[in-house]
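Here is one record:
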Amino acid sequence: MLSGHPVFWILAAAVLAPLLAEIPLRLKVPIVVLEILLGIAIGPHALRLVQFDGFVATMFTFGMAATLFMGGLELDFEDIKGRPSVLAFGGWAASVLLSIIVVVLLRMVPSMHAPWAVALVLCTTGLGVVAPGFRDSGQLGTPFGRCVVAAGTLGEVGPIIAMSLLLSQRYSIWRESGFLLAFFLIIGIAFAVGMGARPPKVLEILRRHMNKTTQLPVKMALLMLASLLLLGEKFGLETFSGAFAAGMILAVATRGGRGSVLREKMETLCFGWFYPFFFVGVGIQFDLGALAHDLPAMLLVPVFALLFLIVRGVPVFLYRGQIEGLQRWPFALSSAVPSLTIIVVITEIGTRDKSMNPQVAAAIIGAAMLAVLLFPTLASALLSRSAPKPPG
């Protein structure tokens, strides 16, 4: 029997996904979508090679933390300060208002159970999906690219802060607010230490151990991640808050050429080992057959995909003077690319505490995969048309 070897099948899917992405097709499928699709194929609802229990479920949790950790590590607020960040904040606030209106309207639909967590789902942006395309096309450093990155940053940071406060069920809202402020204070102190306190002797010790078998800097980074996960849990926050904060702290501490080696090691560890368990694990859990046999839930997939575009795309009209003409649609589509990681976290929490119907959660994840598949491709095509043609 080939079943019963989950690590083999999950890593096989992780290797196959980028190879499939190399096939020259007009529609470029993101690797994370391919990993999810392969997870569906090997999961209990298709080939039944992997079950989502025991070791796989545990590693899925670690993978979720690693994706959020890397999300924090990749943020760079220096690149978006000023006008782009002000516009991004206003755009995300408008998205929050639109998402609340959407949830109120959805609740009027008979048999439609739309918890407030759906509002957070609709406000996300997958910066990790959007940024690589702009980097490869040379648009990342342009005013347009900085606005997209700023919108994506708010679309990741905003929902995570809101989740920390709204989705925790352990304490009252006022006590939770106090714990969140205390958590931010600790994070702020860690930021200050990461930026300023770099004693030469400590740096020399870390440098000497960077390429030894001890791998002391990597272990220290992992200890910081574990510490903030534990701290978030003790404060009654969801553990993802600590993972994201740990990534942001390490980003500040490793800024510059000296920190690039540690960042590369953490990227290798997270991308090569933890990410497959998360994204392939999403597919393993995903019951495509049940969704296909549930017509109302199936119809919700294109509905939620359209809502992603409306909630995050409509605020593009706030960017007058910054984003004009033909660039508005590429900007709207790029901002509307949802964050699969955050959406999976929200739906996991929602189904776990029974505030979200499993069919609705499956429809949201399906819509997010559809949006991640289509929106970046359409944005790239429209942006290439809006680019000024060279003279002659």
Notes: The chain is about 70% helix and 0% strand. The chain has a mean pLDDT of 81. The chain has one domain: 65-276+288-383. The CA atoms of residues 85 and 97 lie 18 Å apart.
